[in-house]
Amino acid sequence: MSVIAIQHDQIAELFLNHKEAIVDFLMQKVKCPDAAQDLSQETYLRLLGKDSLAHTDNLTGYLFRTAERLSIDFIRHHQRSGAKTQGLDDELTCPLMQPEDFAILSQQCEHLLLAIANLPRQCRHILLLRKIDELTYTQIAEQLSISEKTVQRQLVKAMLHCHQMLIDPQY
């Protein structure tokens, strides 16, 4: 068997002439049209990666043999990964937020925003500085020129008001 250099354009021509046959062949092996297309492209890329081929007397056979080996690897991989997966549990719930949960959360947000809007100005300002700007009690006290105790009291007052509005929106 002689080893001969093969040109990329020869491989491209070989692949184009046999592409449909390769895809059909792979489809019979892997039973998935997308996988068959992907494996046919992989076959082409494998041949392009070769600088020389020892099978110059039967390049078509070499093309199909490469495709077959790739299909075997594909099937083995999926059999191994399939053995590791478990069947779906009938009790599984969708991890995404359901519409009714979203509606409840949206309503709670509206109540919370209304509660914050109804706070006295300084109390609201302290709450926002603490929860949104994440300032410490000391930083808030310095910024507003008030004592840390006042910051604490106003913050507790604001949080109790918001909590009560979430429990009873008529509050």
UniProtKB/TrEMBL annotation:
<dbReference type="InterPro" id="IPR014284">
    <property type="entry name" value="RNA_pol_sigma-70_dom"/>
</dbReference>
<dbReference type="InterPro" id="IPR007627">
    <property type="entry name" value="RNA_pol_sigma70_r2"/>
</dbReference>
<keyword id="KW-0805">Transcription regulation</keyword>
<feature type="domain" description="RNA polymerase sigma-70 region 2">
    <location>
        <begin position="15"/>
        <end position="80"/>
    </location>
</feature>
<dbReference type="Pfam" id="PF04542">
    <property type="entry name" value="Sigma70_r2"/>
</dbReference>
<dbReference type="Pfam" id="PF08281">
    <property type="entry name" value="Sigma70_r4_2"/>
</dbReference>
<keyword id="KW-0731">Sigma factor</keyword>
<dbReference type="InterPro" id="IPR039425">
    <property type="entry name" value="RNA_pol_sigma-70-like"/>
</dbReference>
<dbReference type="InterPro" id="IPR013249">
    <property type="entry name" value="RNA_pol_sigma70_r4_t2"/>
</dbReference>
<dbReference type="InterPro" id="IPR013325">
    <property type="entry name" value="RNA_pol_sigma_r2"/>
</dbReference>
<dbReference type="InterPro" id="IPR036388">
    <property type="entry name" value="WH-like_DNA-bd_sf"/>
</dbReference>
<dbReference type="InterPro" id="IPR013324">
    <property type="entry name" value="RNA_pol_sigma_r3/r4-like"/>
</dbReference>
<comment type="similarity">
    <text>Belongs to the sigma-70 factor family. ECF subfamily.</text>
</comment>
<keyword id="KW-0804">Transcription</keyword>
<protein>
    <submittedName>
        <fullName>Sigma-70 family RNA polymerase sigma factor</fullName>
    </submittedName>
</protein>
<feature type="domain" description="RNA polymerase sigma factor 70 region 4 type 2">
    <location>
        <begin position="112"/>
        <end position="162"/>
    </location>
</feature>
